[in-house]
Recover the amino acids of this structure.
């Protein structure tokens, strides 16, 4: 058996410091529970560190911090928001709502790439506030973490307004026309994502539906899969 090289591949982890709609936006006819919109967005990406992974086995053998300037991009996106009252009724705890949005974003991202006949990396996804005042990332504990505009951790979204927004954006500067057809198919995409998550054989969530979960999530009362399903049902106009 060949000896495994001791060197490792640096892999940069990525954080979204902020995403905020700018310039034109168009919003689809709002149903009582959710709205889909399309428009231009400004994205700020920050790479806070890197992870070292061993060749072949993908063992995690360390990480380090890096200090790079933010990368900014102007592009187009389609985004979904749930009606705040309906969201609070479906998922009263904000951490569950954020987790639901992150899981729903994972499923929608993959069905959207398929429908657009694009690579998954041709589209980007982000969950955050519609005004860019916070964004949510998946932390190392598998839970959604809130970050402020300067990437500082937040305990709670600032202010009283809590309007998590799920963005799928064209991952090329200026956009190459991927987001407009996704907006036209916004309702179909949500149904596709619902079908994907509901039809998955896993119990609590997995990389084939809402993204990887931790072993401890299997025994939770509200699983990441259920949280994501609740959000997708809202985005589907409350139709399960
Ligand atoms: Zn699954």
């Amino acid at each position: 058996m060949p000896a495994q090289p001791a060197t490792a591949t640096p892999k940069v982890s990525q954080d979204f410091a902020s995403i905020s709609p700018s310039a034109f936006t168009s919003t689809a006819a709002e149903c009582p529970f959710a709205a889909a919109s399309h428009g231009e967005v400004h994205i700020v990406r920050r790479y806070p560190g890197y992870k070292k992974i061993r060749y072949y086995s993908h063992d995690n053998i360390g990480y380090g911090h890096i200090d790079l300037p933010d990368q900014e991009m102007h592009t187009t996106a389609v985004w979904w928001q749930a009606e705040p009252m309906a969201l609070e009724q479906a998922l009263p705890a904000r951490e569950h709502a954020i987790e639901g949005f992150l899981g729903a974003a994972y499923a929608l991202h993959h069905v959207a790439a398929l429908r657009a006949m694009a690579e998954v990396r041709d589209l980007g996804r982000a969950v955050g506030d519609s005004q860019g005042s916070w964004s949510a990332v998946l932390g190392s504990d598998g839970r959604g973490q809130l970050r402020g505009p300067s990437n500082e951790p937040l305990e709670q979204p600032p202010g009283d307004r809590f309007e998590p927004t799920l963005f799928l954006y064209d991952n090329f500067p200026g956009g190459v026309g991927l987001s407009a057809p996704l907006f036209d198919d916004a309702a179909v995409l949500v149904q596709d994502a619902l079908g994907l998550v509901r039809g998955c054989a896993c119990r609590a969530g997995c990389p084939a539906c809402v993204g990887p979960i931790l072993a401890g999530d299997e025994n939770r009362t509200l699983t990441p899969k259920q949280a994501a399903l609740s959000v997708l049902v809202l985005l589907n106009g409350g139709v399960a």
About this structure: Residues 25-40+73-235 form one domain. Confidence is low (pLDDT under 50) at residues 1-15. The pocket of zinc ion is lined by residues 200, 202, 205-206, 208-209 (CB under 6 Å). The chain is about 25% helix and 35% strand.
